[in-house]
């Protein structure tokens, strides 16, 4: 504990913080080359030492291995008869396929408006080097659009929290919860962001209990706790040092140095509060089961009196600490350094205090819990949010539910419905995965239909779940594989839920289903990303390919999907039924009708679908070494074992392609056939290439995209999902290489909506 105290005091010093400033990573100092640096060997870029055991990713190569490497200077004298508008052909008009571009023109023609992917590895405070956090950032698309859902529109504002200051996070490593829910959900229903995909590969340390510092708080009555909470509604009296000292040490703490050197400064008071809050008998909010915090205070009966008192005592001490850390007299550099060094248990106490300070006020109080009256600043907003949530989800008992909501709001009894409703309407919500269950349970609890009694067991402890209500619709969490796959056919994705989805005969009229799905196989390396992959993300997805002084025009090609003119050809797939197989946990499958034949696909693996980052000024040329194979959605069910190496063939004999395809030769040719760089048709595909990207053209009805997603879940392959109206095919393929996934699903929302 002395070591912790030294770290806290060190963090409180007013020296400039060595942590990131304003969320931006500082430049690394110049260093010598080490064994872990990327070095050039032959015609392939390699890492001489991998940071962890795992699959080695193939580096991009050029056709001419004698080309000297290292990007050359820009050629400002390059004649500019060429139009730098969106490309319609390659090479552009007036340019020969035999030309070699210098860096400047190559950036203009090939890289302008493309998203540039960069991986980040950051250490974990108080943990060894074996633990780390992984992130991804993207830049360069010359637009304001991103791949993440708008937090307001998707109702997820309370799922994320930035401790250092208020407002949304700029970078994913700024939030308390990790992976960050501010950068979790993709814009397209059922998808996640590239950053969230990368963050899932982080190695986070297990929770470690803190040793008791031996510092005990003063005994305090419940009425005095309420009185101090009400005083703090006006803020901390940090302009009056004597008053601030008396309020803390005469009411809450004991000052061991009050005669020799009283603790009147912010740093000593912060240290004392941290020492008190490290006692093991407080509630640990890092534990998931404790993160619905209102369950500790919803019950005001004498049987819960001790827990009720402990919660508010802990809240008060945390609020005193939060206000001192955020004081305007506390320098920002010292504040950032301190917050980054605090143990997780203290950080989550501060999160609770922040939510209380932002959203709740004490209106009146007395000596008993029954006399406490709270005012919820977010109540009107939360009521409107729940009403909109029910309407957009097409809640089966909508009219009666909204009438009950209106009546309870008028009676001021919304917080008396349940502990989940109390948390939702008060805004006392810790960041993380609890919020989707708070909003849905609040809706279920307010619905007066007695049938909802069968739906009361929804819990964030079982995130992969859903339920059927009145045989009308099913609703699924965005974390469940059923929700991810069925999302394209659903009306909306809100607050971590996907719905309304089609009903199923395998569930009762009102029933919850917990879904079982396996972790995808990782033997081939196609379904996971490692820290070495994150470190090399930029070079493995560079639109120009490997660094060079010149960039031959014939090493790039303009690629695009093959769009059928006949709408019937994009309308051959229909979902027949959703099947759930009990007992305790359900195995899900979907049966499709494809051109008159039935094809069942099991949702066996818990895969992810990554929303492609939008590009601008597209389409963009694709470097020849980004290899891919196009296939129509209705032909996808004949593709097997994609991304897995085939058995080794005898010397001089080509590996067979039958392990990948069970379809007659010639099906699914890409635009331009096999002559285009990077393109391979099914009849010419050679087995054993673990990194070749399968591009699924899922245009037309939403069932085509559901089929593509279900196929991925059947085989255990995560995928990038790209709307070709916002992301060109080349950029989607490069993002697949950046994320180390081997499937891209192409859709076109604008064209499909106009066809409808």
UniProtKB/TrEMBL annotation:
Extent of Gly residues compositional bias: 665-677
Region (Disordered): 1-99, 642-687
Compositional bias annotation for Polar residues: 41-51
Biased composition (Basic and acidic residues): 23-38
Domain of life: Eukaryota
Name of the protein in its database record: VTC domain-containing protein
Species of provenance: Humicola insolens (Soft-rot fungus)
